[in-house]
Amino acid sequence: MNQKADHSFNKYVTALIGGQLFGLPILRVQDVFAPERLTAVPLSPPEVAGVLNLRGRIVTLIDMRCRLGLGSRENGQQSMAIGVESRGESYGLLIDSVGEVLNLDDAERQANPVNLDPRLGQVSAGIFRLERQLLVVRRRPHAGDRRARGCRMSKSQRSQVGQVNSNPLMRNVRLR
């Protein structure tokens, strides 16, 4: 009997955020894109980098470095975004870079280690031990998630992500 037939394999899109490798189940990923024409959202939580129009959909861009308390990206560092949907809303997860798609055996996924940084533990659904590093499986966000504070992107940082649009119509928009 084939031992691999007894295991469930899933594909994960890998992303690098602050030097840490993350994996998102490929079935949850809708898009991979370079964010452009970002509109700032006044009074939004610090991790909300802004909103943008992606093929007719309004997408809220979440800065994952900020969300994880990793600080701002370096000046001139290009970023990418992974599009996901949660509770009927479209989100872009702003990351440092997109990697490859890995086909991993779910039987090898492990619970979060006790010494995993609490910031990673908040977003982790487990880990895979790869040859040279850990892959943190990104879990679905939920309302009880704690957020990092104090990492609001400056106008120049937003312009590095994509062109800033200071649309006066968005002045009174507030995200939940």
Overview of the molecule:
By secondary structure, this protein is mainly beta. It has a single domain, classed as OB fold (Dihydrolipoamide Acetyltransferase, E2P), CATH 2.40.50. It is built from three helices and twelve strands, in the order ββββββαβββαββαβ. It has helices at 64-67, 118-121, 155-161, and strands spanning 9-17, 20-25, 29-33, 38-39, 48-54, 57-63, 80-86, 89-95, 97-105, 124-129, 134-138, 164-165.
Summarize the structure.
This protein is mostly beta strands. The chain is built from three helices and twelve strands.
Query: How many DSSP H or I helices?
Result: 3
Could you tell me the strand content as a percent range? 35-45%
3D shape:
globular
Number of strands: 12
**Elements, N to C (H/E):** EEEEEEHEEEHEEHE
Number of domains: 1
The description of the largest β-sheet is: 5 strands, mixed
Classify the fold: give the CATH topology: OB fold (Dihydrolipoamide Acetyltransferase, E2P)
Key traits:
OB fold (Dihydrolipoamide Acetyltransferase, E2P); globular; disordered C terminus; five-stranded mixed β-sheet; 3 helices; mainly beta; 176 residues; 12 strands
Fold topology:
Elements: E1 9-17, E2 20-25, E3 29-33, E4 38-39, E5 48-54, E6 57-63, H1 64-67, E7 80-86, E8 89-95, E9 97-105, H2 118-121, E10 124-129, E11 134-138, H3 155-161, E12 164-165
Parallel strand pairs: 2-11, 4-12, 6-8
Antiparallel strand pairs: 1-2, 1-9, 3-7, 5-6, 7-8, 10-11
